[in-house]
Fold this sequence. Notes:
The protein is an alpha+beta fold. The chain is 20% helix and 35% strand. The chain is built from four helices and nine strands; from the N terminus they run αβαββββααββββ. A hairpin with a 2-residue loop joins β2 (57-61) and β3 (64-67). The chain starts with a helix and ends in an 8-residue tail after the last strand. Residues 5-19 and 163-167 have low confidence and may be disordered.
Amino acid sequence: MTGRLRIIFFLAGVIPFLNAQEIPQVLQGRWRVARIIPTSTISCWGYAEARTLIGTEIDYQANAFRWKDFSASHPGVAASTLSAEQFHQEYSGRGAADSQVSFAELGIRGPTILRITLTHPDANITGATVEIPGDEVFIKNRNTIVFSVCNVYFEAHRNHRKSATRR
Length: 167
């Protein structure tokens, strides 16, 4: 076997594992969606749709996450830190009448926040979005996360009890 062929076989075996990352330990566990956070955003969901998430749970394991019947195994994992200004620029519209969201509205008191993004095949939650609740989260503190679905922001708390997800 030539040297080039060995390298090709080696890379073919290794490359699939280069993107395989575990969900960070800080996020692993079961989280109960506690409330809708009032913001100045324009959403594709109404109050009735948003309310259906309250009381449900998101379960994060090292290599998978689940909300209700939707699960994603071996999602892509990316983590980044955002400043308050970066967050506002990325998650707010550009015009005066567009959606606006800030750390202050979300109750984030520090100068930065950790964002964890999980990529997965599209899911059909309501027909309005392909997001799975909790596929992009902001770590507010070790027991509180913030996430949005359809531009509605939610707060979830770490659930220390062993219980099944409400359906």
